[in-house]
Specification:
Elements: E1 2-3, H1 6-21, E2 35-36, E3 214-218, E4 221-226, E5 231-234, E6 237-240, H2 241-254, H3 259-278
Length: 283
């Protein structure tokens, strides 16, 4: 990994600015691939379309920086500060963003596939049509984030905070949402095929038109059948469908459900069980 002096970095940024302002006719595009920049202050810097692949940017201050269309694939951004930064269309595939601050960052149509975003702060971030397939977002804060049309196929969102997030039309198929907070989230027409919702908080979430799940609401309790009807979540309890069939009356009594509630949820459970049997889900 190459280390740069402050003077060398300053000159690279100067030439890159000339390159951008001249329409790529003068100066030179910043090539910082594999560079060691840990702890540097690049707040407000214009690194649009720069090559920062595999660079060490851990702890770097990139507040309000312009990284639109930049190549950050495989880069180390551990604990970097990218608050309000512009990363639209940037390539961050397989990048390390563990505990990175991306509050209010612009990430429209960026590539974050297979990136490590565990415990990252993405609250209020713009992730419109962003590719997050296979990304690790365990424990990440995405409160109020805009994930309209985002690709989250097989992503790990366990224990993540997605309360008040917009997930309209997003693809969360095969994603892990175990223990995630989705209160007041918008999941209108979201793809939830094969998703794991065990222990997830779906209070006041908009699930209208969501695909891949079956929902049933009776009084204050929401019931959701997920993962190809193999699991059912009622209130805060998630079990395999076959276990619900055997034990729903006892579970209902233990949770102080009324006889009427137990009967209605029992009908839903048996319906899901029958559907699963007809589909060959129970061998």
């Amino acid at each position: 990994m190459k280390q740069l002096t402050k003077e060398e970095l300053s000159e690279i940024l100067k030439q890159h600015k000339i390159w951008l302002e001249s329409g790529h006719k003068l100066g030179s595009k910043a090539n910082l691939s594999g560079a060691y920049l840990s702890g540097a202050n690049l707040s407000g810097a214009n690194l649009s379309r720069a090559d920062l692949s595999r660079a060490d940017l851990s702890g770097v201050d990139l507040v309000d920086a312009n990284l639109e269309g930049a190549n950050l694939s495989g880069a180390n951004l551990y604990k970097a500060n990218l608050e309000e930064a512009n990363l639209s269309g940037a390539n961050l595939s397989a990048a390390n963003l563990f505990r990175t601050n991306l509050y209010g960052a612009k990430l429209e149509e960026a590539n974050l596939s297979a990136a490590n975003l565990s415990a990252a702060n993405l609250s209020a971030a713009n992730l419109f049509r962003t590719n997050l397939s296979g990304a690790d977002l365990k424990g990440a804060d995405l409160k109020g984030a805009d994930l309209y049309g985002a690709k989250l196929y097989t992503a790990n969102l366990s224990e993540a905070n997605l309360s008040e997030a917009n997930l309209e039309g997003a693809n969360l198929s095969e994603a892990n949402l175990e223990g995630a907070k989705l209160s007041r989230a918008n999941l209108f027409r979201t793809h939830l095929y094969g998703v794991n919702l065990s222990g997830a908080n779906l209070s006041d979430a908009n699930l209208y038109g969501a695909k891949g799940i079956t929902i049933f609401q009776h009084e204050q309790h929401l019931a959701v059948a997920f993962k190809n009807n193999k699991y059912i979540k009622i209130g805060c309890k998630s079990y395999k469908t076959v276990n619900w069939v055997k034990n729903f009356e006892k579970i209902g009594e233990d949770e102080y459900y009324t006889n009427s509630q137990i009967k209605r949820y029992g009908q839903f459970i048996n319906m899901i069980n029958e559907q699963q049997s007809n589909e060959g889900g129970i061998k």
